[in-house]
Every structure is written in structure tokens, then in C-alpha cells.
Amino acid sequence: MCRGGRMFAPTRTWRRWHRKINVNQKRYAICSAIAATGIPAVVMSKGHRIEEIPEVPLVVSDKVEEFKKTKEAVALLKRVKAWGDIQKVYNSKRFRAGKGKMRNRRRIQKRGPLVIYNSDNGICRAFRNIPGITLINVSRLNLLKIAPGGHVGRFCIWTESAFRKLDKIYGSWKKLAADKKDYNLPKPKMTNSDLSRLLKSDEIQSALRLPKRDNNRRRVLKKNPLKNPRVMNHLNPYSKVMRKAAQNVEAIRKASRQAKLDAKRGIKTEAKPPAKKAAKAKKTAKPAKK
């Protein structure tokens, strides 16, 4: 047995652990994640229980930042009807499926609310023992906390001062950000994204011309004249005569071939009408001039 052996492919300090991303891209991602937390449908699609809370985003008084006891935090969550999301976390605790159990990652659970505060006057001590809750300072927002797994729409509980500070940090469409140099919020290309409502509005419908319905041509199925006799007759009326003549010649050849075979076998058979016609034609035919 080997004792004190080395691990296979040990992690090295010169590995490329990180990737460079533009600052503007990172800010754009955080702004998008914050915007998604204010859309109830997106938050509910993530599995958060927000059916009974009074508003989204949920903003509470700054007195919450002075909480120091967990029972005060629990009372607040029950008062704003957010305790159902914590109950979901309690019910989701389970053992991990797979080998992660051997690697000190035995238990997993769902995510709960994200509490965003401005100043820590005891709020971290009050909320830190409630399962599923994550606390973060509004001045140091982390994209992996707002959108865990890269999926936007986490349920956020803001304190009033933290929510007001967002305009100072990221600015608005009318005013530049105070904390970030020459930065303001990304403006959407469309002020109203309800495209179907825009297209059906009276202003746009009055400017559009009426659709042209006379130019609609029926698509006719093209048929092969070599396989379809009716189409060939339409293209070449004489084809019917040629086809009939070819059938007669074939019938005469078939009858004469059968007569020769019967003569060799000693079978006497009465000539059929095409054969009779062919024999009569041979007798009445004039010999060719030399």
C-alpha cells in the first residue's frame, strides 16, 4: 500500500484560472440581473414562493439593518409573507446524488431570498443562521449571488437605503452614475416591447397599405407528359394516334410470334383478329418495284 503518495495532475499556480471580461460587460450583466429581480413572473419561474408578498421588489425599512437576533429576522419574514420561501429551503434539504458525497459536499438545498443592505448594524448576525438566505452589501454586489448559476430572477429583499443607493451607484437614463465614471444605465432600443400591440395599433395600421390579394396564384401541380397520357394529348394531339398505331404493331408482332411457335409445336390455332388483318395485309400488298 502506498502511503504519502502524490495526487494525479495536481493543480498548478500557473494554470489559467480566470478570464478577462470587459468592465462594461460585467456592469451590464449586473444591471440585467437586478432588473430581472423586479419581474414577478421571472422570480416565480425560479421557484421562489412570492405569491403572498405585498410587492416586487420587496423593500423594507432601514430599521431591519439594526436587527441582531434571529427571532427578529424570522418575525420580519413572516410579517412580509416571505417565510414560505424559507420553508421551501427547509423541505429541499437532501443528500447529493453522486460522488460529491465523498468530497465533503454531502447535503444540498435550494436557494432562499437575497437580503441586500446598505450598512451592517447587526443585520448579518440576525439573518445568517436562517437556511437559504444570502446577505450582500449594495456597494459590493456579486453577480453569482444575484443570479446563481447564471440564471436571473432571484428573490431579493432590499432595505430602503440600499434601494435608494442604486441610483447613485449605477445612475439612471437621465443622470450619470456618481460612483462609476461616465456610466449610466443601458437604455433599451424599444420603449414598448409589446410588438403585437404596436403592430395592431391604429397609427401603424393607418400607415400601412392594404395587402394585395389579387396576385395570389394557385400553384398547379406539374405532371410528367411521358407518364400521363392526358397531359401528352394536351401538348401533342397526334400522340393518341401514334400510341394507338404502336399498340397495333405490337399486337401484330405478338400474334405472329405466337403463330410461329404454335407451328413449330404442331398446334393448330385459329388466327386472332389482329393476326388475320396482318395476313390479309400481306396478301393484298403489292410487291415492291425493283
From TrEMBL:
<protein>
    <submittedName>
        <fullName>60S ribosomal protein L4</fullName>
    </submittedName>
</protein>
<feature type="compositionally biased region" description="Basic residues">
    <location>
        <begin position="274"/>
        <end position="290"/>
    </location>
</feature>
<dbReference type="Pfam" id="PF00573">
    <property type="entry name" value="Ribosomal_L4"/>
</dbReference>
<dbReference type="GO" id="GO:0003735">
    <property type="term" value="F:structural constituent of ribosome"/>
</dbReference>
<dbReference type="InterPro" id="IPR002136">
    <property type="entry name" value="Ribosomal_uL4"/>
</dbReference>
<dbReference type="GO" id="GO:0006412">
    <property type="term" value="P:translation"/>
</dbReference>
<dbReference type="Pfam" id="PF14374">
    <property type="entry name" value="Ribos_L4_asso_C"/>
</dbReference>
<dbReference type="GO" id="GO:0005840">
    <property type="term" value="C:ribosome"/>
</dbReference>
<dbReference type="GO" id="GO:1990904">
    <property type="term" value="C:ribonucleoprotein complex"/>
</dbReference>
<keyword id="KW-0687">Ribonucleoprotein</keyword>
<feature type="region of interest" description="Disordered">
    <location>
        <begin position="253"/>
        <end position="290"/>
    </location>
</feature>
<comment type="similarity">
    <text>Belongs to the universal ribosomal protein uL4 family.</text>
</comment>
<dbReference type="InterPro" id="IPR013000">
    <property type="entry name" value="Ribosomal_uL4_euk/arc_CS"/>
</dbReference>
<keyword id="KW-0689">Ribosomal protein</keyword>
<feature type="domain" description="Large ribosomal subunit protein uL4 C-terminal">
    <location>
        <begin position="181"/>
        <end position="254"/>
    </location>
</feature>
<dbReference type="InterPro" id="IPR025755">
    <property type="entry name" value="Ribos_uL4_C_dom"/>
</dbReference>
<feature type="compositionally biased region" description="Basic and acidic residues">
    <location>
        <begin position="259"/>
        <end position="273"/>
    </location>
</feature>
<dbReference type="InterPro" id="IPR023574">
    <property type="entry name" value="Ribosomal_uL4_dom_sf"/>
</dbReference>
<dbReference type="InterPro" id="IPR045240">
    <property type="entry name" value="Ribosomal_uL4_euk/arch"/>
</dbReference>
